[in-house]
TrEMBL record:
UniProt keyword annotation of Glycoprotein present: yes
Names of the cofactor(s): Ca(2+)
The protein's name: alpha-1,2-Mannosidase
Residues bound to Ca(2+): 273
Biological source species: Apostasia shenzhenica
InterPro entries: 6hp_glycosidase-like_sf, EDEM1/2/3, Glyco_hydro_47, Seven-hairpin_glycosidases
Pfam families tied to this protein: Glyco_hydro_47
GO CC term (a single one): membrane
GO BP annotations, alphabetical order: carbohydrate metabolic process; endoplasmic reticulum mannose trimming
Annotated gene: MNS5
Cell compartment(s), UniProt: Endoplasmic reticulum
Sorted UniProt keywords: Calcium, Endoplasmic reticulum, Glycoprotein, Glycosidase, Hydrolase, Metal-binding
């Protein structure tokens, strides 16, 4: 079509399954879900050998246009929808995709409590920056059960919020400064969203204090006669005449639910990336064999013959097939997460990674080194 572009983002084509799957189950017409699953599978097939995806691609040529990727803009809801699709529809295929993608993020993007961006082809860091859209990640980690990691990242995001009074769109971690052209705050909901999830998981009243700080800042800096205005520059708090719809559908909603979750009592809901609740129904977990065919099981060998197995059934930790420089296949642990420092020194457990052999979380010893320590009374 005229004036149409063939460029799209990973999140754009990989975040359709919740809405399309729900529509199919409500109407009985599974064309919608089939199309969304097809798009998701195609996108997943384009991942690198590191299980990383890029940020933008051409839907006609099927080629990546931007190889640098992270957990923020252009990719964020792709990860979110893999996990939430598993919760909503119960297909193991969604879980297997998410599990592999999550481990890759923890291995190649994580740097202590922060997440930088990296090249999907080799895992090398590209941009050391915090973006406001990344603040959804702690909330997603809560759904996975990774509470400690979620808490650590959330506190860093809130620290930046406290520094400026709101969360700037982009902050350069390697230079400890605002991005020169992206100093704005468009009333984004991600920090409020993660705060809500963390309080639901921990019931720690500190998160209610965080919510109160967010509400106070919104009232102090953004409230105007006709609603709430976006901030053009967080250093001057200059406003612009714009209020995004997500401020109502997400920011206000998550802040409200933080203090009054009666709506959720005794009921199971999952929220879409735009904050719309979808009911979790056991009847929706009926798998459709035509659509849900396993494509990403781990390959194992027995007596020289390859067969498909679930990585979660292996005696050792989950493994993925990789390729050496000489072309020979080998298995490398997919659960390995490196320590924060190359010399394995540490100050807290959060700076220790995950052991590649046992898949156990390493801890920081009294001497200040990461390891699998055994304590004997």
């Amino acid at each position: 079509m005229e004036n149409e572009t063939t460029e799209t983002s990973t999140s754009g084509c990989g975040s359709l399954i919740l809405e399309m799957g729900t529509l199919s189950r409500l109407t009985g017409d599974f064309r919608f879900e089939k199309a969304a699953v097809h798009a998701l599978r195609k996108l997943w097939s384009m991942r690198s050998s590191l299980n990383l995806l890029g940020t933008t691609l051409d839907v006609v040529t099927g080629e990546w246009l931007e190889f640098s990727s992270g957990i923020g803009a252009g990719v964020d809801s792709f990860y979110e929808y893999l996990m939430k699709a598993y919760i909503l529809f119960g297909s193991d295929e969604f879980w297997d995709m998410f599990h592999a993608a999550y481990l890759a993020v923890q291995r190649y993007f994580r740097h202590g409590p922060w997440y930088h961006e990296a090249d999907m082809r080799n895992g090398r860091a590209t941009y050391w920056q915090l973006t406001s859209l990344q603040a959804f990640w702690p909330g997603l980690q809560i759904l996975v059960g990774d509470v400690a990691a979620a808490n650590a990242s959330h506190r860093e995001f809130f620290h930046i919020w406290q520094k400026f009074g709101v969360l700037p769109e982009r902050y350069l971690l390697d230079r400890d400064m605002l991005h020169p052209t992206e100093k704005y705050y468009p009333l984004r909901p991600e920090l409020a969203e993660s705060t809500f999830y963390l309080f639901q998981a921990t019931k720690d009243p500190w998160y209610m204090e965080v919510g109160r700080s967010i509400v106070n800042s919104l009232n102090r800096y953004t409230k105007v006669k006709g609603g709430f205005a976006s901030i053009r520059d967080v250093t001057t708090m200059q406003l612009e005449d714009h209020q995004h719809s997500f401020f109502l559908s997400e920011t206000c909603k998550y802040l409200y639910l933080l203090y009054d979750d009666a709506f959720l009592a005794g009921q199971n809901y999952i929220f879409t990336t735009e904050g719309h609740p979808l009911p979790i129904r056991s009847s929706w977990h009926e798998k459709l064999p035509e659509y849900y065919v396993q494509h990403n099981c781990t390959r194992a060998k027995s007596k020289g013959h390859a067969f498909r197995v679930s990585s979660m059934t292996q005696q050792l930790c989950p493994a993925t097939t990789r390729t050496l420089n000489n072309g020979g296949p080998y298995l490398e642990s997919a659960c390995h997460v490196p320590d924060f420092r190359i010399d394995h020194s540490c100050r807290t457990d959060d700076e220790c990674g995950t052991d590649s052999t046992t898949c156990r979380k390493r801890t920081c010893s009294v001497a200040g080194y990461c390891g699998l320590w055994v304590f004997v009374d």
